[in-house]
Structure formats: C-alpha cells, structure tokens
C-alpha cells in the first residue's frame, strides 16, 4: 500500500487524538450522573444499531455479484431499497408518533434482521424483498431513535443543551469508531476467516438482536400524539401543514435533503473518481480514512455545540460552503491536471488531491449530523416529530433513485458539479434559516414583553 494512504490516515488520527485530549472546561458540558447513565445507555444502543448497518454496507454489492447478478439488476435492487424507504418506510416510520417510539425501534431491529436473513438466498425475488425490508428499516433508523431520545430527554427534565452532547458523542462513536471497527471486523470474517460474503450480515443480525434486548429491558415508551382519533392520513396532513406553515421547518427539510442527497451521491461516485483508469486503490482502507475524517468532524461539532454563545445556524453556513468546494475538486482537477492514460498502477496525482478533498467533505459530514439533529430538536414539533422527519426523506429518496437510474448517463464531473451546486444552495438556505429563526425569537420576546406590560396594571 502506498505511503500516501498511511500518511493521510496517520495525520487524521493525530488530529482527532489531539482534539479529544485537548478539550478544556469550555469544551465540556457539566452534567448530572442521572443524565450520564441515560446518555451512555442510548449511545450503547445506537452504536449497536449502527454496527448492524455498517457491517452490511461494504458487502451488499459484492454479495449480489457473487450470486451472478449484473450491474443493471443490482441497480434495480438498490433503487428498490430507496423506493421502499420513501413509500413504505415513511408510513411505518410515521406510526412511531402514535404507536410509540420504543416499539418503532424494536420494529427496526426485527425488520433489519429479516432483511439480513434474506441475503442467504440467491433468488432475485427474495433479495428484492430484503431490499424492501432494508428500506423500511433505514427510515426507522433515522427517525425513531432520534425521536425517542428527544422525547425521553425532555420527559426526564434534562437541560436542553445536554442534548447536543448526546448527539455529538453518538455520531463520534456510531458513525466514526463503530464504522471503522465494523469494516475491519467484516474484513476479518470474509477474507481472514473465509466465512463468505454473507457472514457480515449474520454478524449484523447478532448486534441488532443484542441492541433489541437492551431496548426491551431498559427503555420506556414515549409517544408523539397518541390520540386515537387521528388516523395515519390525518397525521400526514398535520405534518404537511406544519411544514407549509412554518418556514423554519420547510427550510430545515430542504437543507437536509440537499445535503444528504449530495452525500449519498458521493458514496456512489468516490470509487470511480479515485480510480478512473482502474487504478489499484485500497477501498477498505480509504473507507476507514473517511470514517476517521467523520470522527474529526463530530469532535469539532462537540466543541462548537458546547458553546451556548455560538449558534448552530451560523457555523453551518460555513460548513455547507466548504462542502460545496470539496465536491467541486474533481471538476477542478479534470480541468487543471492532465489525466493519466495508463491503465492500472497506483493512485494518480489528481486522485491524491481529490482524496484530501473527500476527507474534508467527510469531516463536514461529521459536523452535519449532530448539528442537524440539534436544529431538528429545536424546530420540529414533538407531536409529529417522526412523521415530519420521514417527510424530509421523501425528496432525498427520489433524488437518490434518479441518480442511481442515470448514474451512467452523465460524466462524473457533471455529477460532482451538481452536488456542489446543491450544497451551495443549502448554504444559502441555511443563511435564510438563521435570519428567520432570529426574527422569530425577536417577535417572541416582543410578545412576551407586551404580555408583561398588560398584566402589570392588574398586579399593581
């Protein structure tokens, strides 16, 4: 393996270690033992859930190829997963507000375990069923757990600022360290122990089952709107009205869809971007480097969120702008660097530049997750939290399905340029959200003062 990869990985490791070890009292939030116990329980469960997800990611495509399916058939399977998340996942995820968030989290575990079991069959219809189940599970993973956490945090009376601590630590471990360890563990199962490409899915089922046991034994149930008079259609209408009537929620949904759409597109594009001439690149090691970059970002986010004087709406404008520049680097290199014509070999000079840019983008992803969670906890109403969060995923899933369907129709530089534009638009919308949020706070303060003045003569 080329020294360049070790150099990048080593530098990132040193920076992450330095950031974590150099934290001062200003970078830490003083909490209570009861909150720490609650936080650690949630992070343990979340890490197990993410381990179940990360173990599968690197081997899904590979498993399908071992069953003899081609690129087109595999593409349809992936589209089925995102389409399922958009259609069925939205419905199932929205039921969490009425039927209970704990129950929805258990449903995630069961659904994903069943999806893993289908990977043992080479039959296309059964694999398609597995993708549909996986799409439903994904919607629950990105809505039910966060909804349960926010509701339970508030129900127990913990300080609102402490919520950001749980978010940043969960992303640091679940989307960083656990992802790296899952990749290494999957590599051991498949390559070292020669247990076959289905073995990571069996391991994922075990982690999901352990997490489900912890949820059943230690979590309490909470609801959004448990009113029995509200059917699912009424919930959807209420969520749509909330989004349409509150500009802050609409802006937040648009920002999330633009960023996550660009992020998922990047997942499909980074391999051909770094090896346009079939260069030999260590995919697993690069994936681990990206996850380390995400850990760097979440470590920075924990420092930013710990400062009550620093508004998340302000610094995220910069994060989105930096992300736009990072994903525009392949466009710049294609124009400024002479492409290599030789097939194979090691990573090219332009590939090295792009890899550094992609690491910076992954650091932005690490900042994005806890920050968007913080904003969602502030702006999305509790009674319809899961429903609205799944509404946000509808345009995202449509976007990813369109990209997957047309991935060979456009040059890779056009795809990256499109993502860069989307991220720039997200930065502009974030600026608008900051203005609207500040205006709303000013109006609320003015209304409060008016009420005080009205009640003052009565109290005199």
Sum this structure up briefly:
This is Molybdate-anion transporter. Keywords: Membrane, Transmembrane, Transmembrane helix. The chain has 460 residues and is mainly alpha-helical.
Give an account of the 3D structure.
This protein has 460 residues and is mainly α. The chain has 2 domains: 39-221, Up-down Bundle (Growth Hormone, Chain: A), CATH 1.20.1250.20; 232-452, Up-down Bundle (Growth Hormone, Chain: A). It is 80% helix and 0% strand. It is built from 16 helices and no strands. It has helices spanning 3-21, 33-54, 60-66, 71-99, 101-118, 124-141, 144-155, 162-192, 199-218, 232-245, 247-274, 283-306, 312-336, 349-379, 385-405, 412-459. Helix 13 packs antiparallel against helix 14. This is Molybdate-anion transporter. One of its GO terms (molecular function) is molybdate ion transmembrane transporter activity. Keywords: Membrane, Transmembrane, Transmembrane helix.
- For this structure, the CATH topology of the largest domain is Growth Hormone, Chain: A
CATH architecture of the largest domain: Up-down Bundle
H/E series: HHHHHHHHHHHHHHHH
Low-confidence stretches: none
| CATH class term of the largest domain | Mainly Alpha
**What would the average pLDDT be, to the nearest integer?**
87
CATH homologous superfamily title of the largest domain: MFS general substrate transporter like domains
Q: What structural class do the secondary elements suggest?
A: mainly alpha
Q: Please, how many domains? A: 2
Identify the overall geometry. Answer: globular
Beta strand % = under 5%
